[in-house]
Design brief:
Jelly Rolls; alpha+beta; 163 residues; 4-stranded antiparallel β-sheet
C-alpha cells in the first residue's frame, strides 16, 4: 500500500514508522534527518515465517537487518544465546568487517525485517564522512569489548598454577 503513495509521502511514512529502529543501531545513533531519510530509501522489507533462518552461521555478511516486528533467536550451534525483540538491529559487524556470520538468527514467530545491503551501506559511508567516522568508532569500541572479554595468557597460566 505504501508503494502506491507519491515518493515523497512514501519516504515520510517510512521515516515515521522506521526512524526509531534505525537509530537504535550504534552506527546510526545521532544521525541527522537527511541521512536517515536516505537510509530509509535503501531498506528492503522482508517477511520471515516462524522457524525461518534470517541469518545462517558461516554465511558471508553482505547486509545488516532491522527487526521491525516479531522476535528472533540468536543461535550458536544449537544453543540459543540471545533473543532479539522488535526494534533490534543485527548482522552489522559481519557486514562492516566483511566476515562470515558468527551466529545464526532464526525467527521465533512472524517477523517483519528490513535489510540494508552492503553496496548501499558502503555508498552511504562514502557519501557521508561523519557516518563513516561513526562506523569506525563503533568498530574500535566493539573490538576493545571483545578483547576485554577474552582471557589473557596470564589468566590461563594463573588458572594452571591454582590447580
Amino acid at each position: 500500500m505504501i508503494e502506491d503513495l507519491p515518493k515523497s509521502l512514501e519516504i515520510d511514512v517510512s521515516l515515521f514508522i522506521n526512524r526509531a529502529i534505525i537509530q537504535k543501531a550504534p552506527f546510526f545513533k545521532n544521525a541527522g534527518e537527511i541521512f536517515i531519510r536516505e537510509v530509509i530509501q535503501h531498506l528492503q522489507p522482508t517477511v520471515f515465517l516462524p522457524n525461518d533462518y534470517i541469518i545462517r552461521r558461516g554465511e558471508h555478511g553482505d547486509c545488516m537487518y532491522f527487526l521491525s516486528k516479531g522476535d528472533a533467536e540468536v543461535l550458536v550451534g544449537d544453543k540459543q544465546v540471545a533473543t532479539l525483540r522488535s526494534g533490534s538491529p543485527f548482522g552489522e559487524m559481519a557486514l562492516v568487517q566483511n566476515e562470515k556470520r558468527m551466529a545464526s538468527v532464526r525467527a521465533i514467530g512472524y517477523c517483519d525485517v528490513y535489510r540494508l545491503l552492503r553496496d548501499d551501506f558502503d555508498a552511504l559511508r562514502k557519501k557521508y564522512p561523519e557516518f563513516d567516522a561513526q562506523v569506525q568508532q563503533v568498530i574500535v569500541g566493539r573490538m576493545k569489548e571483545t578483547q576485554a572479554r577474552m582471557p589473557t595468557s596470564d589468566d590461563a597460566s594463573a588458572g594452571k598454577d591454582a590447580s
